[in-house]
Design a protein that fits this description.
- The protein is an alpha/beta fold.
- It has 8 helices and 6 strands; from the N terminus they run H-H-E-H-E-H-H-E-E-H-E-H-E-H.
- Strand 5, helix 7 and strand 6 form a beta-alpha-beta unit.
């Protein structure tokens, strides 16, 4: 895996790329992609970073794994390529945005339009085998994405962290809540959305807070 990543991120994360665990992770990913079908496509593994440069980050949304079915994963959490049917979690995200802000669900599930406005769509594990959720966990990605959260926490001001579900909420311990806003809710999956994701109003809360800090709101 050749790490081609936006320059601002590269500067912040260079030390991680040089660590032993990342070398091992790189070998593992190369082996996996050469012997099994994995997602997202190799060129899109770092799409979240390329679409939302370090200096532009306003909101962090954290997912767990990429989607495991062909054509879905595009390197940004919850996002799918243009023309792909919206997975249930994404449908529920759009439903909450509609309830919160009155914005109808878009035809496209490609969230790069959010990323370009400063929404960093990070999965804790950046790759996965086809049909096997969690298949690339425990190989080093989590250490890398923890370092990413630390870099944002330390190097940015007034970022909103939307942490949905217990897995994402563990990352809150890394976040300085005296300068950043942490919003927590159940995961938007059909299994848990009705336990408090619906009605959380994270999207209007994020915009209100960003505007209060002099940072423009997101057009969700």
């Amino acid at each position: 895996m050749n790490v081609r990543i936006e320059e601002g991120w590269k500067e912040k994360l260079q030390q991680e790329f040089e660590k032993e665990y990342f070398t091992s992770l790189t070998e593992f990913i190369k082996q996996e992609y050469s012997t099994t079908r994995c997602f997202p496509p190799g060129s899109q593994i770092f799409s979240a970073f390329d679409h939302c440069h370090f200096d532009n980050v306003k909101v962090v949304i954290l997912g767990q794994d990429p989607y495991i079915r062909p054509g879905q994963a595009n390197g940004m959490c919850f996002s799918v390529a243009d023309g792909i049917q919206h997975p249930p979690s994404l449908q529920n995200i759009f439903k909450e945005i509609n309830e919160d802000l009155g914005i109808p669900a878009p035809a496209s599930g490609d969230l790069s339009r959010w990323a370009k406005q400063g929404v960093f769509l990070l999965n804790a594990t950046l790759t996965v085998r086809e049909g096997q959720s969690g298949s690339h966990q425990g190989q080093g990605w989590e250490q890398f994405t923890d370092a990413v959260i630390h870099a944002i926490n330390d190097g940015s001001d007034h970022v909103v962290f939307m942490l949905w579900g217990s897995f994402a909420q563990k990352k809150a311990s890394f976040v300085d809540q005296t300068k950043h806003l942490v919003l927590k809710a159940p995961h938007p999956s059909p299994l848990s959305a009705y336990r408090g994701f619906f009605g959380c109003k994270h999207f209007s809360k994020a915009n209100a807070w960003l505007e209060s800090k002099g940072k423009g709101k997101i057009n969700w």
